[in-house]
Write a structure and sequence with these properties.
This is Acyl-CoA thioesterase. This protein is an alpha+beta fold. Helix content is 29%, strand content 30%. A five-stranded antiparallel beta sheet has the order 1-3-4-5-2, sandwiched between helices.
Length: 171
């Protein structure tokens, strides 16, 4: 069970290295557009317990609430190709009292080329009623410790693509 530790450093970003599988590709040998979601979600699901010591089911059981996706915004920049090793990073880009925006992005293995950027917006809802509820207790502390909390008011996904690409090239 997750217990927030004020003494612990919680990384803001997760990272996984994966290979693009043949079965996930289209006839052009590019990763199928729908498969990007699987790669992103699986990478985060693998990394969150390692980095933060929590399984999402722990939060659900303890607080009787969960995050429900209500929006995806994805930008395909360059194709990921069959057999290619890629890096997948994710982070909580922003949150408020009942919503989180998780950012996922994929690069080539050398982290010089942006492949795809995904923003997933989720609402925190009660399990029993399915009603929106506020982040509380360790959930709120977890969000504070692991979020970038970027001001997204005037930030579009296209602007974010440009920001990430310039950081990758500048590395």
């Amino acid at each position: 069970m997750f217990e927030f530790n004020q003494e612990k450093h919680y990384p803001k970003e997760t990272e996984s290295r994966v290979v693009v599988r043949f079965q996930d590709c289209d006839p052009l040998q590019h990763l199928n557009n729908a498969k990007y979601f699987d790669y992103f979600f699986n990478a985060r699901e693998d990394q969150v317990p390692k980095l933060y010591g929590v399984e999402m089911i722990d939060f659900i059981k303890k607080y009787n609430a969960a995050w429900v996706v209500y929006n995806h915004n994805i930008s395909y920049v360059r194709p990921a190709k069959v057999g290619e090793w890629v890096r997948i990073r994710s982070r909580i880009l922003w949150y408020n009292h009942n919503t989180v925006l998780v950012e996922y992005y994929m690069t080539d293995d050398t982290q010089k080329e942006l492949k795809t950027l995904l923003w997933t917006t989720m609402r925190y809802v009660t399990i029993k009623e399915g009603l929106s509820t506020d982040h509380k207790g360790a959930v709120l502390e977890f969000l504070k410790a692991t979020s970038e909390n970027v001001d997204i008011q005037d930030l579009s996904i296209n602007q974010r693509v440009k920001q990430l690409k310039s950081k990758l090239v500048g590395s």
